[in-house]
Design brief:
This protein is mainly alpha-helical and 71 residues long. The chain has helices at residues 3-22, 30-46, 52-61.
């Protein structure tokens, strides 16, 4: 595992712990929130030349372009 992958895993574990400890989401929803954060962070890596706001806009429109996913 590369250093970037290890750092990503550490961030996701921290986020998961944060959600659980602060009870910010029901336990059954927490894995889905972590997955969305993971997908965003991986997407942001590929679009690092864009400002955050533009990257977020691109990410939010991307799922609607995938087969079987509603916008």
């Amino acid at each position: 595992m590369s250093g970037a992958d290890e750092k990503l895993q550490a961030v996701l574990e921290g986020y998961s712990n944060f959600l659980r400890e602060k009870k910010l989401a029901m336990p059954k929803h927490q894995p889905h929130l972590v997955r969305w954060v993971r997908e965003f962070l991986l997407f942001a890596r590929k679009h690092s030349d864009h400002p955050f706001e533009q990257t977020l806009d691109l990410f939010l429109t991307a799922p609607g372009q995938r087969a079987g996913v509603k916008p």
